[in-house]
Design brief:
- The structure is a single chain.
- By secondary structure, this protein is an alpha/beta fold.
- Strands 5-4-3-2-1-12 form a six-stranded mixed beta sheet. A six-stranded mixed beta sheet has the order 6-7-8-9-10-11, covered by helices on one side.
- The chain has one domain: Nitrilase/N-carbamoyl-D-aminoacid amidohydrolase (4-Layer Sandwich), CATH 3.60.110.
- Helix 1 runs parallel beside helix 3.
Length: 269
Amino acid sequence: MSSELRVGLVQLASTQSKHRNLEKLKKMIVKCEADLVILPEYFMADIKGLAPVEVYDISEDVNGPLINEISRLAAEYSTFILATMFEKTEKKPKVYNSVVFINPKGDVIGVYRKIHLFDAYGYKESDYMLHGDKPSPIINIGSARIAAAICFDIRFPELYRYYALKGANIVVNPSAWYKGPFKEETLRFLAQARAHENTFYMIIVNQCGTDFTGRSMIVNPYGIVEVDLGTKERYLEYQIDMNAVDEARRVLPVLKLRRSEIYRSFNID
């Protein structure tokens, strides 16, 4: 089983047209050789200035036209794609903020719905979205075991520890990280902390442009940022050595040194 994973990071500035965003994606990955291509949160549309019902009108089912077209790209390039979308619900005008795992045959093999909604810094995602209630599936690509979280989830370390204990060695975080004082620095240190405390890779794939920070990154299990895409639209492929996770967990066995029997007495919900 290969220890190498070639990941493609799609950092873009989404418009409010899902069709235009799809055309951007097609142009960016035209020379794709990645094992896994990752799209940012809000790929379907930038929601700034839109009412909840307008976002609902943009939304689709998982088997709708957008994911069908991205599935066609996955099959064309023989790659896994981790796509994002606003998933239609029966509770109009609210949607799910979802990650969809697509395999190289174009099949949808898993869905994660954002658990922690961004009701902070004056924003209120819960006006637009429903909370997800389940962790991500863990998808195998060679020796990589990949889970997903979305943007604001990164501030809740319990989810990432759960993934580590379930065997994940990469967590991918599609994001639409809004600009603001120290926000780039905050994203960076949170990604480094989640990676280092769980000794796995963290991959942040972010929106850029007027409202978002960019700075998509790959952080290794020691918490070192190996890749930083800067602030402009960019597609980058990067080779990850999964052996680094095994080595980090040998040198720094924090998952084995946990005192879970003590934690149970804390009665923390």
